[in-house]
Amino acid sequence: QLFLCLITVIFSSLLHAQVLPITGPTTLCVGNSIVLSDATGGGVWSSSPGTVAVVGTGTGVVTGLTAGVETITYTVGASYVTHSVTVNASPSPITGPSSFCLGTTAVIFGSPSGGTWSVSPTTVATITPTTGVLTGISVGTATVVYTIATGCAVSRTVTVLPVPTPITGSTLVCVGGTTSLPGTSPPGGTWVSSSPSIATITFGGVITGVAVGTGTISYVLSTGCATSPVVTV
């Protein structure tokens, strides 16, 4: 009988044990996770209302679903403690070009406004932190990150494309005369004249002077990247 009494007292003590406070972050971003913990072992995690965030019942891992406030509860027997978690909205997906040519610039956009831009590695591209203006430094890919005041961020990969090698050869031609520009690299590009009334160019790179003036001859790759010397007639 004494043994049963002791068991009852112990069980009752465990049932109504003091649950220590929950520890861990109080904020997270939509789509991200945080880990909460409680030094009182053997408990179960739950969340309310359950539409803002969810928690692993046995892990304390909280995942943000939508912006708002979620109450996380840790229950041991008949005792429990709570912990409020604020879920902050993440920025909208980054918009603007996903690729641009080496040596040129491109502008990308983030929402809401007022965030800060960063890029890595900076050996491939650099970015102006407040404006989102990218500059291609070397051919390759880089990751752009847009971070807002809450610390929530969104990222995107951008590609810096190669440009053709510089065009060599004479860029002076007489009216009615021709001059040839050597092939540039890589092959497969297209020759274009910005002012065909001044100078024309064939697929093979032969310029014909049409009228006195200056015009731009471009060798354009399928990516749109080009090299463009000025031709004088």
Write a concise synopsis of the structure shown.
The protein is mostly beta strands and 233 residues long.
H/E series:
HEEEEEEEEEEEEEEEEEEEEE
What does the main sheet amount to? 4 strands, mixed
How does the overall form come out from the CA principal axes? rod-shaped
Structural class: mainly beta
Spatial order of the strands in the main sheet? 1-7-6-3
How much of the residues is beta strand, in percent? 35-45%
Give the mean pLDDT. Answer: 89
C-alpha end-to-end distance? 115 Å
Based on DSSP secondary structure assignment, what is the total number of beta strands?
21
Total of DSSP H or I helical runs spanning 4+ residues: 1
Helix % is: under 10%
Report the C-alpha radius of gyration, rounded: 32 Å
Low-confidence blocks of residues: 2-16
Structural features, described:
There is one protein chain. The radius of gyration is 32 Å and the shape is rod-shaped. The N and C termini lie far apart (115 Å). A four-stranded mixed sheet has the order 1-7-6-3, with no helix packed on it. Strands 8-14-13-10 form a four-stranded mixed sheet, with no helix packed on it. It is mainly beta and 233 residues long. A hairpin with a 5-residue loop joins strand 19 (214-220) and strand 20. The protein has one helix and 21 strands. The longest helix has 14 residues, at 2-15. 6% of the residues lie in helices and 42% in strands.
